[in-house]
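quick one: alpha-D-glucopyranose bound model?
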Amino acid sequence: MMEEVMPWWKTAVIYQIYPRSFYDTSGNGIGDLQGIIKKIPYLADTLGIDAIWISPFYPSPMKDFGYDVSDYRNIDPLYGNMEDFDQLLESAHQAAIKIIIDLVPNHTSDQHPWFQESRSSRTNPKRDWYVWEDPKEAGFPPNNWLSVFGGRAWEWDQHTGQYYLHSFLKEQPDLNWRKPRVQEEIFKAVRFWLDRGVDGFRIDVAHYLMKDPGLRDNPVNQSGNQAIHKSLGEYDAQIHLYDKGHPDIHRVYRDFRKLLDEYPPEGSRMSMGEIHIFEWNEWTSYYGKNLDEIHLPINFSLLGAAWNAGSIRRLVDELEDNLPEGAWPNYVLGNHDDHRILTRVGRDQARVAATLLLTLRGTPILYYGDEIGMGDVDIPPDMCLDPAGIRQPGQGRDPNRTPMQWSDEPWAGFSPPQTKRTWLPLADDYTEVNVVQELKDPTSLLSFYRQLLGIRKTHPALQTGSYQAIAGAPEGCFLYTRENIRERILVALNFTHQECCIPSEVYNQGKLIISSQSSRTDHEIKQLVLQPDESVLITL
Ligand code: GLC
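yep, here:
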């Protein structure tokens, strides 16, 4: 039987790089593109991941650390230049690593020439590239919409006597996607990068582009439920019905997909969308009715989940049950906006998390540093840099963006020794928790990740096989199988700190592929008692 040839992004493990924090070659305490190039051997050989998604590296005033873009077709000098980028593309491709870049289409920086023109006068041809509105009576903002980062989503412009919309910072004005010229210009930028050879895009806040054309007020949130998987403070006071997610958005993504599909070889360019929607039908709508929109709407469901077998299994099964025919799943456990997985689940459970991420059906997206067990770093209030945290204490994302811990050398090997300071402080634990140290230790978390990543490659059932949860698993354990025509693999995860006895019909005298605990030596499984926090893979 001929097996279906899968597009690369279905079998890939995607690794997210926050470029400020990956590797600094210049000595200014901030990571750069040359740093990513230098670490390609780590990505390709040590880890064996297949693709990197790089958070924004475009010119930016850095009010939101690059998510405020002032030029969509260039590189911020902090990170290097276009030659560095081309070199990165080439070296990555030589190492069989695909490059996914961040696209920030909802808003620009207020320093972007488009906005500068737009705000210059009411009659400027670019005026309507952004969302400008007259005040309501008595000078009040046009409606009650709030910024995700706190406060009103409208900023008064004295010079032209109107308000402009900003769903995030006031330095990040929202583009007006109802104007065809806006789409044309952003698509030109997309072509610019596709022509250079990038393999895909991660679309920032993909569901924010289209708002209610009538700009109606959002209803008050009576239920007290959070808007997304984490508290957003003041923003949670409303139900965000009208300020994002208008169905007109789907036309944009159909057009976007057509653009990607123009590039040969067929189906080689992909998109993944940051879509914080937790209602499955609405979330899956971003795949497109005919799977003709975003390849991978990013699935954030596990980020806010209670860490126990029952709730994790329920979320996985719900996703599987709700996926449209032919749509491909994906999972994330960490990113630059959320607390680190290690901090959320604790060191004991870190291997259960690793096993889950790398063995569920779907594309795993792994956040840099999670593979060595980096945790959130306490950042004193006076060192807080993230605007989200400055505006709403406790919401800061600095703790999960600290420099990668490469070694126990000065600056954890992230910056050259003569560096004065790194842009965010390093974790205290870097002398033990670092790449060099963990590579020496076959029982380290990094060694475990490496083994799992290798096993994914040598056991295609884990990449493309079916998923089936096993009913009647003992309390605290999540058991499932991954199966293709050649093999059937049992994944058994113990979410508790106690032993857990697995009924014999489940493992059926299978053979151990890997255990998270080096003490397990029984290769023919005669009896399976999971140790506290243990995860195992067994061939049935
Ligand atoms: C996305 C990014 C986040 C940024 C925001 C505004 O959520 O992941 O880091 O602050 O968009 O651009």
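The mean pLDDT is 97.
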